[in-house]
């Protein structure tokens, strides 16, 4: 209960700007990476007219045009359950050396810890419902504090914010640079959740589903190959307890009700980059890198490997 009352104070405080700054002062410090970096005149190949970014405000486009080392990376991934937030956020995290913080993982870690919140969380998560803003902000704050202590800077958030209140609290304490809204055809989302497998040892995310949507009524087909685990993970795969058909459908409903307004919130701030996934990782990853002006970064990493 002590945790809960501390959280409630934090969230209540965070709704008033001055108090929020006090409570989350560590957040502001921790989340202002590269603030001393000079901006660069980039020889960017970024195509601002590619349609993806037409509603993004100029400052955010400016961020994308900078060399990656000169950018702020305080990014948020939005998207329905099963869209692939974890997959793309973790790939970008590896590419940029910025921590990928998935609030779903924080919740699952807490669940597995048999701590005081464990049984309460289990019931909520296994029904596909959202954990309270208070609890989730407390878990996120602890994770950010631990990261700060290890010298982390920046973040790629996945699964947070999920309510407008969470988004307002976050925006009240730090300036999110970019919100990447991943979109995938609805027919594929349920199949992707049901096909998801996680390595119980390294946490790697894989998928056994082979999605082959035929072209119909003028809509193009879509093929998504499975994402198989590497041999060292193959015998350690587990399925998430909340990836059952009934619970996934409930999570999709909750996304529509609670998180779609978060898309609108960031759209109105001009921070939302809409990205329609054209297929599986093989087709989508290069296009996402292009949209984020990070193609050169991957070339550099491959050359160094
Ligand atoms: P999904 O595949 O549905 O995007 P996640 O792994 O992000 O799932 O989250 C799993 C569960 O953890 C959610 O269904 C919810 O119960 C809880 N959770 C994660 N992030 C949040 C959040 N920001 N606010 C409230 N609950 C959350």
TrEMBL record:
It is an enzyme of class 2 (transferase). Keywords: Kinase, Nucleotide-binding, Transferase. It holds the Pfam family ADK. This is adenylate kinase. Its EC number is 2.7.4.3. It comes from Gossypium arboreum. It catalyses: AMP + ATP = 2 ADP. Monomer. The keyword ATP-binding does not apply.
């Amino acid at each position: 209960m002590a945790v809960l009352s501390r959280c409630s104070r934090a969230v209540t405080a965070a709704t008033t700007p001055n108090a929020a700054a006090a409570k989350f002062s560590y957040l502001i410090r921790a989340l202002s990476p590269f603030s001393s970096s000079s901006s660069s005149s980039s020889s960017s190949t970024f195509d601002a007219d590619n349609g993806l970014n037409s509603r993004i405000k100029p400052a955010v486009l400016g961020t994308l045009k900078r060399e990656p080392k000169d950018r702020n990376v305080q990014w948020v991934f939005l998207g329905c359950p099963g869209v692939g937030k974890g997959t793309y956020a973790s790939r970008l995290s590896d590419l940029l050396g910025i921590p990928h913080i998935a609030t779903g993982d924080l919740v699952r870690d807490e669940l597995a810890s048999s701590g005081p919140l464990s049984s309460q969380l289990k019931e909520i998560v296994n029904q596909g419902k959202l954990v309270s803003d208070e609890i989730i902000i407390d878990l996120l704050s602890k994770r950010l504090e631990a990261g700060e202590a290890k010298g982390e800077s920046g973040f790629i958030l996945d699964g947070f914010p999920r309510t407008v209140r969470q988004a307002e609290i976050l925006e009240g304490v730090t300036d999110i640079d970019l919100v990447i809204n991943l979109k995938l055809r609805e027919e594929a989302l349920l199949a992707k959740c049901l096909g998801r497998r996680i390595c119980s040892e390294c946490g790697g995310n894989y998928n056994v589903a082979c999605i082959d949507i035929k072209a119909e009524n003028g809509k193009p087909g879509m093929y998504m190959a499975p994402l198989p685990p590497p041999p060292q993970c193959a015998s350690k795969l587990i399925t998430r307890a909340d990836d059952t058909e009934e619970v996934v459908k409930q999570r999709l409903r909750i996304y529509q009700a609670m998180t779609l307004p978060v898309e609108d919130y960031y759209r109105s701030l001009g921070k939302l980059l809409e990205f329609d996934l054209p297929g599986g990782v093989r087709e989508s990853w290069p296009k996402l890198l292009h949209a984020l002006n990070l193609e050169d970064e991957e070339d550099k990493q491959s050359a160094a490997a």
